[in-house]
Amino acid sequence: MEADRQSREPVIVPLDDIGLLRFEGADVVTLLQGYLTSDATELDCDPKFTAMCNIRGRTVCTGYAWLDGQAAYLALHRSLCAPVQDFLRPYLVFSKTRLSDETTNVLLLGTLGEVGGSASGVPSSARRLDDARQLCVLPSDAAVEVSAETTAARLRWDLAGIERREVWLTAETSGEFLPQMIGLDEIGAVSFSKGCYLGQEVVARAQHLGEVKRRLAALNWSGIQPSPGAEVEANGRRVGTIVAAAGTDAGRALAVIRSGYSPPFSSPQSDTAFEFGH
Length: 278
Known about the structure:
Gyrase A, domain 2; six-stranded antiparallel β-sheet
């Protein structure tokens, strides 16, 4: 009973592995419409999960985008802030848009549960991700009391994202998968009606011709926690790649698995076993 109560208590956790890019200028929405997989004209103050692809239709980054006044923001894995800036630099030459990395200027917090207002030290303007989670962007010197059990709080946050099948690509997994392979089409992060964006022809062709041979699967794992990019094997043959994992001696993971393969799976890098989750 005590464990159940604690699992429902509101938590505030630092998101030290998440970075923040800022887009500002007269052409912000027009620029993002040409590179986001979702419809940039529908962006507002509530963050939307989205992605960017390269010309081959492979997903470069994933994360949450939103508008705030005349600027747009993209929260993504910190390891991809510099690569995404480099990726977009040639296209920014033709746009009245400035791109900056705000990661060191802000404090990014995740909240689970009814957290907010002066009582918790987190502004009531925290941005809603879903019914349970909020994203808070504060000045880097803000004084906020985070949850005492930081490791347990972060585990709850990560597991919540896995349950929603959100894949935050990292430097190890960037550029490897079509959006459909990591389930972006299943969670509304890809628009098939918005028109052209970088990689759109490849993504649309795969969708309409059914050429996606790898799909996202939820797994239960036990052993050593796998890292993003870790291989998944079946009978000694590589059949997939881990894209997210959370737990201690056991936990939950998301993996891109080739069609036609089923557990038991293993990892060649460690003594980790996998079974399909629910």
